[in-house]
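User: Can you predict the 3D structure for this chain?
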Amino acid sequence: MAKAIMIQGTMSNAGKSLIAGGLCRIFAQDGYKVAPFKSQNMALNSFITDEGLEMGRAQVMQAEAAGIKPSMLMNPILLKPTDDTGSQIIVMGEVHGNMSAREYFTYKKNLKPMIMDAYNKLAQEHDIIVIEGAGSPAEINLKDDDIVNMGMAKMAKAPVLLVGDVDRGGVFAQLYGTVSLLDSDERSMVKGMIINKFRGDKTILDPGIKKIEDLMKIPVVGVAPYGDLDIDDEDSLSQRLTNDTAKAIDIAVLRLPRLSNFTDFNVFERFEGVSVRYVSRKEKLREPDLIIIPGTKNTMGDLKWMRESGLEAAVLKHAAKGKPVFGICGGYQMLGEMLEDPEGVEEGGSIRGMGLLPVTTVFREEKHRTRVTGHISESFSGGIFDELAGNKIEGYEIHMGETSAHGGKSADRLCSISAFGEEAAEDGYHTDNVFGTYVHGIFDTPEIAAAIVRSLAKAKGLDMEAVSGLSTEEYKEMQYDKLAGMLRENLDMKKIYEILEVGV
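Assistant: Here is the predicted structure, written as structure tokens:
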């Protein structure tokens, strides 16, 4: 049975996911079979496994760092917010229904046996399990029947490392206050503290570290710097969403209120001279070279938001100039003529689309989830992205609703895809400058992203013929090794191994 160690934080976005991912990489480098685990995740960034099951991206990143395939066992519960008070509940990779926050708070205790079953299956096959908490264990209003922080630590008998965020200030108060609000048996499970995201001379912290260790009788096992890393982020707190600086090639992604799977576009940030800006206000859109409408957890609601904010009109104006617009998943649905929701999956009724592609989407209760491979249609020849014609693609689909074509505006199919050896089917549509597809990850193939950058440069009269890129897998491996090296240098790994060995 595996030994376990748990990473908890003083707040959301304290860096738990990256610390856990880095430890997964270090343990794997040291020859251990290691797997990540997070009992309950709340995020709109999700992933589809080879089995067609849905899980949170943080544990996908950590599994990749550990050198193993992602499994829904690593994230048995995923909450995907649908509005300010409710979420879609994903249990063991399958949609379990929608619940309000209060309904789920009452219901979640019923999921403990399933959580432990998933955890035990992982523990039987690995040497070490790195568990990640959620938010803060000191959220005393949520402690009853906790299944993700100290409740999970107790179920797994896992010692806890508590991570504080020095970048947001008050890190010693964060650590002291968090531990002070824990019950005595919970406090005894906190075996080490990590100060994260530090910039500058670490010796400045020494007096504070000595004082906090004396007060709490818990060692500080490391001060991790604010690293220059490019690793998939879990949620919309990601700092990349705040970039507003345009470069030679300017790509604008609409920052929808319920934006999901924004990691689809991280690949473009790896090209020199290319900016990816996330735009939520019309006046910030300016004159980008490409507008991308991303996935969303509520297509109809976010289309209404675009309409009310003036961003829809700005996108239509951009397209009318012959400049490219690309819609992924929910963004693809918005580009059509009509969206219909007869079963009340989103908001009920129907709503006019943007009218840039001759398709209608009808929402259904069943969620479509699958990994796919295929190629871009040869019909791309002659359009702005004609270099894409025939290129191979790989990714996944995850959506509610079926989209079909009807008469009207002329358009061609975007790509041919198949899943699990099934017969190839057509996906998406495009005109010369408007493109829509359900395939998440379509840009991750380096040839696809590089061809788009070259095409945008050519349209501006810029010379970027030499643009090329590493495969996504090669690039991620470099980043995981960089993360592990940074943590080895700044954490007391001897002490962390001791904590792991002794347990609770």
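The chain has a mean pLDDT of 91. Residues 28 and 447 are 30 Å apart (CA to CA).
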